[in-house]
């Protein structure tokens, strides 16, 4: 931007002649102080155009905010969010039935089910922005967890521990469990839950329990080789690095 300023010249003019020799000048003959000429005002420049305001970036999704599913899907049990993508475990037995209008036009609440509660019907949904996909091969699985690269998720349940990789999310068995519920009187099936990826995505840690006994296990994702079995209940599993697992407050080395 160029700014141009015009300044007026200052002129001093002698107002009276010099006094004669030996004559004392009177106050009337004393030259008056010269006044500077008024400065020429600077040329007015138009104000520079302000740059157009950039639109504010879209707010990032809150990782703790539950995704929005259609009412018929069921109730969300838990979920994992990675950027704009969400994988959620949903119990299809808990569907919110909206009230229906009665004969008088007023809404009527649906009748509450009687008898023993229905067994959970677990499914996995994958959501990305407006696209929602129910994975029918995930029955009975829950606790979904994205891999560090965001391309695969793991889920667990009585059926075992599975991974599902984009784009088609075909299931892959990591640990085989029990496909069907045991008959009455038979020992309870082993349950698997809370799969947690190592930072490099090569290992999975999870909990398993059966008959009141619990343990922590670690497997190699590529080979499905069992790397660790540690007896005892655990509330929180978290990787410190690729070879160190934090089981509650205990640091456990994984070979």
Topology record:
Elements: E1 75-82, E2 85-91, E3 100-101, E4 107-108, E5 122-128, E6 131-135, E7 141-146, E8 152-157, E9 160-165, E10 170-176, E11 191-197, E12 203-210, E13 213-220, E14 226-231, E15 237-241, E16 244-247, E17 250-253
Antiparallel strand pairs: 1-2, 2-5, 3-4, 5-6, 7-8, 8-9, 9-10, 11-12, 12-13, 13-14, 15-16, 16-17
Give the helices and strands as they follow along the chain.
EEEEEEEEEEEEEEEEE
Overall geometric form: globular
- Determine and state the CATH class of one domain: Mainly Beta
Residue fraction in strands: 35-45%
The radius of gyration is 40 Å
Mean pLDDT: 79
Residue runs with pLDDT of under 50 for 5 or more positions = 1-34
The strand count comes to 17
Which architecture of one domain does the CATH hierarchy give at level 2? 7 Propeller
Distance between the termini: 67 Å
Strand order of the largest sheet: 1-2-5-6
- Please give the share of residues in helix: under 10%
């Amino acid at each position: 931007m160029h700014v141009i300023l015009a300044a007026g010249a200052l002129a001093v003019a002698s107002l009276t002649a010099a006094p004669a020799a030996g004559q004392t000048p009177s106050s009337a003959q004393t030259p008056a102080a010269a006044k500077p000429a008024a400065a020429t005002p600077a040329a007015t420049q138009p104000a520079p155009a302000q740059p157009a305001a950039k639109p504010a970036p879209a707010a990032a999704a809150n990782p703790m905010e539950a995704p929005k599913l259609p009412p018929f899907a069921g109730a969300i049990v838990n979920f994992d969010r990675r950027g704009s993508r969400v994988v959620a475990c949903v119990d299809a037995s808990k569907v919110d039935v909206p009230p229906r209008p009665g004969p008088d036009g007023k809404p009527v609440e649906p009748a509450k089910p009687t008898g023993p509660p229905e067994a959970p019907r677990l499914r996995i949904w994958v959501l990305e922005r407006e696209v929602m996909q129910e994975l029918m091969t995930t029955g009975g699985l829950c606790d979904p967890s994205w891999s560090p690269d965001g391309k695969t998720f793991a889920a667990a349940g009585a059926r075992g521990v599975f991974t599902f990789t984009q784009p088609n999310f075909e299931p892959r068995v990591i640990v085989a469990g029990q496909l069907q519920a045991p008959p009455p009187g038979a020992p309870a099936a082993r349950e698997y839950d809370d799969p947690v990826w190592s930072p490099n995505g090569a290992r999975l840690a999870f909990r398993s329990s059966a008959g009141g006994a619990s343990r922590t296990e670690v497997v190699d994702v590529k080979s499905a080789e069992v790397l660790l079995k540690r007896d005892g209940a655990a509330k929180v599993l978290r990787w410190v690095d690729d070879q160190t697992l934090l089981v509650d407050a205990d640091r456990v080395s994984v070979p």
